[in-house]
Structures are given as structure tokens and as C-alpha cells.
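2024-03-11 09:14:02 INFO receiving multi-entity request
2024-03-11 09:14:02 INFO entity count = two
2024-03-11 09:14:03 INFO echoing inputs for audit
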Amino acid sequence: QKEVEQDPGPLSVPEGAIVSLNCTYSNSAFQYFMWYRQYSRKGPELLMYTYSSGNKEDGRFTAQVDKSSKYISLFIRDSQPSDSATYLCAIRGSNYKLTFGKGTLLTVNP
Amino acid sequence: DAGVIQSPRHEVTEMGQEVTLRCKPISGHDYLFWYRQTMMRGLELLIYFNNNVPIDDSGMPEDRFSAKMPNASFSTLKIQPSEPRDSAVYFCASRVAVSGNTIYFGEGSWLTVV
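2024-03-11 09:21:47 INFO inference complete, emitting structure
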């Protein structure tokens, strides 16, 4: 079993839709949970991170972590064409070694 | 700040040739990471340094790969000899310990080995 599993999509939604992106992980030692956004032909950039179960909100973005189920989610409200990118979940334990999901390609259509 | 700077941005080389990828981390950052991204395997950590010292190179695929960080502002990833299966995007990233979980990625070096 891979340490982090992410549905690769692709996911195509109309502008204004609510988007749900998800990852599961296998190692309960993971402590920090992150979402990165990667535009085409660019490097990933950190979008959000959290280290506890529950929700964390930042504008239109909400990160959710359920440690009991080893499940993390990113919700995007009122999606915009500028949100079109690949979204990667990333998880790490007590060291600085990030384990990434393969990414979900999202397209928001105007 | 200019961000993490990588060179070359694109390289096409023939199998068997030596490839050297270069990275300048953000000034003041004490961690440097080399990642490789492919469609099949996603983003994989190859090696990371702390204060110029290699800490974990368990992701380096084989002896053909080597990485150095001679000083705080420069690192190289070398592949010798290169093979077609090394074709990928190689990212360098850096962070500073006090910044928490924020790792800053460069724009990547796109390598094609023919």
C-alpha cells in the first residue's frame, strides 16, 4: 500500500462549483498535512497546512483532516478559472521529509 | 527575493551523457531538497541537506545519481551516465527551520534523455 493515495482525476467543474479533493494515507505517525497547488510548468506552492484533526479555513479554501480515518480533504468554494491547476496533498512526520500524493488535475470552466 | 533558482530550465541529452542540474536556494534557508516528478511516480524526494550536510539520500535511485552542496547558496544534482528513464522534471526546494512547513520550490529543470 502506498503511503499516500490521491485520486488523479482529472476533475472538470463549472465556475462557481464547490470542489472536493481527497487523499488517504497509511502511516499514523504522520503529523503534518499540507496541500500544494501546481500550475502548469511551475513548481508546487504551499496552499494550506494543518497538524490536527478538524477544519482549517483560508478564504475560499478549507482543509479538513480526519486522523482516525487517515483521510484529508481540500474544499474550494466558488471555484474560479484561476484555480485550474494540479493539487497535491503532502504529509510528513517528525522529520522534514514530505510524502506527496500524485496530484489531482483540476479544470474550472468559465 | 528571487526565490529558488534552477538551471537549466530545459535539457535534452543523449543516453550515456553526464547531466548536471544546478540550484540556488533562497538566501538564509538552511534546508535544501531535490525532488523528481514523473507522471508515473509523482513527486519523489531524492535527497535533502541541512546546513549543507546530506541528511537523507534514501530516495536517490542508484549510484548514477549524486548530489552535492558545497556551500549554503549552491547545490548540484548529477546523473552519470544518464538513461532515458531519468527523463523527468527535477525540482529543487528550500526552507528555513523557523518557517514551519513552508517549502519553496523552484520552477524545475525539465530533463529529456533520448
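2024-03-11 09:21:48 INFO post-check: Chain B touches chain A through 23 residues (CB under 8 Å).
2024-03-11 09:21:48 INFO post-check: The first strand of chain B starts at residue 5 and ends at 7.
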